[in-house]
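Thread title: Can someone regenerate the structure for this chain?

I was given the following input by a collaborator and told the matching structure tokens would be attached. They weren't. Posting the sequence so someone can regenerate them.
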Amino acid sequence: MRIVFAGTPEPALPSLRRLAASRHEVVGVVTRRDAPLGRKRVLTPSPVGALAAELGLPVLKTDRLDAAATETITSWGADLGVIVAYGGLVREPLLSAPRHGWINLHFSLLPAWRGAAPVQHSLIAGDRVSGVSVFQLVPELDAGDVFAQTRHPVDRGATAGRLLAELADLGADTVSDVVDAIADGTATAVAQTGAPTLAPKLTLADGLLDFALPGDTVLDRFRGTTPEPGAHTTVAGQRLKVLSARRGPDAAALAPREIRLVGKEVLVGTADGTISLLSVQPAGRGAMPAPDWWRGLRADSLEAGS
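Best answer:
Regenerated them for you:
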């Protein structure tokens, strides 16, 4: 079967690799345009664009699937479109151009967490089971019939970055199985059931940690916003990015939001115990162990959020 693949970031790479090595033919790849990266703002291909070039596949770089993009993609004569985190909407007539339409790999168990940031919102909500869904793309956001779902337990210490990488590998297997089933004429899709939850793109404000809440709630938000958009608080009027944290000893008697060096650990009080800051990044500086940061403040006690 002839496949057109659309994707942009690293989580799309396992699916592209799997399809390129399969019995099917990837006739073209669609990805976002090269973006300026780093301090020198060097134009850099997307991870999918770089892999497509490495594999010798035709690549269309576009930020909008407009009439010109539709003409190019249609000319490839694909039987099926596969989209994994492309970052743009597929509308008619492109939606119906491949004989089997388009399928989408989504990093949640639909209808849970429809939207751009399903993994992040799932972790913030404290979900202990996640997974992937492969569904038929329709005009409504993430609402199409589902061909397959694969569940995945969430490790208590997993950040959004780590969980997304795990789901990307899991999703590549699920996508491959669905593509094979569509080619063989054995694929079936069922309507989504249950009330949907939404997962819009996160902003910097979503990473703000409120240490007056219970410790597990604070850590869920930390994990869901790490590495992007970044978990943070303020201390003495300065923004502090929290890079690594875990539950601290409950025996330490700290008031909510109180920060102290206890033994060799920088602890922050919450509503039901403490959180140990392991690695932080003060504004305008690089990452450092939390005790090194604290010693530079020369304070006995401070308050997170101050």
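The chain is about 25% helix and 30% strand.
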